[in-house]
Write a structure and sequence with these properties.
- This protein has helices at about 15-25, 25-30, 40-55, 100-115, 130-140; strands at about 1-5, 5-10, 60-65, 70-80, 85-90, 120-125, 140-150, 150-160.
- It is of the alpha+beta class and about 170 residues long.
- The chain has one domain (about 1-160): Aminopeptidase.
- It has a five-stranded antiparallel β-sheet. Strands 6-8-7 form a three-stranded antiparallel β-sheet.
- Helix 1 (about 15-25) packs across helix 3.
Length: about 170
């Protein structure tokens, strides 16, 4: 579990299925990350749990410490096809503009670079997602390359453990 002044991050479980579907049901929330049926959510949550088991990290539910309300998700995701660990965040629209994404992501980065010893973390942000691009830049990420993720063009941002812009793989 990761905590900040306002937030608690915990690994996602099967018990989060209905919440996951509701979070992604909002068209403004899912326009960059997609929506889920209950069956798709069950599969995705199993994949996340397997990643926790295999790699020691994965996506987390982000809850308000004051109330326990789940307001979003943030965490690390391993992309086998890129050989990269990505940080990602998605928050319920009612909680946008309160700094939760930056706060949660900052804590996840500290955990990834510190406890996990990662050397580089990427953030894959679909074109047009200006809010997430702003969060990435606020955290010190810089553009690394253009790529395609989930059949959509994106900019891959990167941050090295030392806080520098990470270089592409040779």
């Amino acid at each position: 579990m990761i905590t900040t002044d306002r937030l608690r991050l915990r690994p996602l479980t099967d018990a989060d299925t209905d919440w996951w579907v509701r979070l992604h049901a909002d068209e403004e929330v899912n326009r960059f990350v997609g929506g889920y049926t209950r069956e798709q959510a069950e599969v995705r949550l199993r994949e996340i749990q397997q990643q926790w088991t295999r790699r020691g990290h994965g996506l987390c539910a982000v809850e308000l410490r004051s109330t326990g309300e789940a307001v979003g998700r943030c965490g690390l995701n391993w992309w086998e096809q890129f050989g990269e660990t990505e940080i990602g965040w998605t928050f319920a629209r009612s909680h946008w503009g309160q700094g939760y994404a930056t706060e949660a992501a900052r804590a996840v980065l500290a955990w990834g670079f510190g406890s996990l010893g990662l050397q580089r973390i990427t953030a894959m942000i679909h074109h047009g997602n200006t809010a997430s691009s702003a969060v990435a830049r606020r955290l010190g990420f810089t553009p690394l390359r253009e790529d395609t993720v989930l059949d959509r063009p994106c900019t891959v941002y990167a941050l090295g453990r030392d806080g520098s812009a990470a270089r592409p793989r040779p």
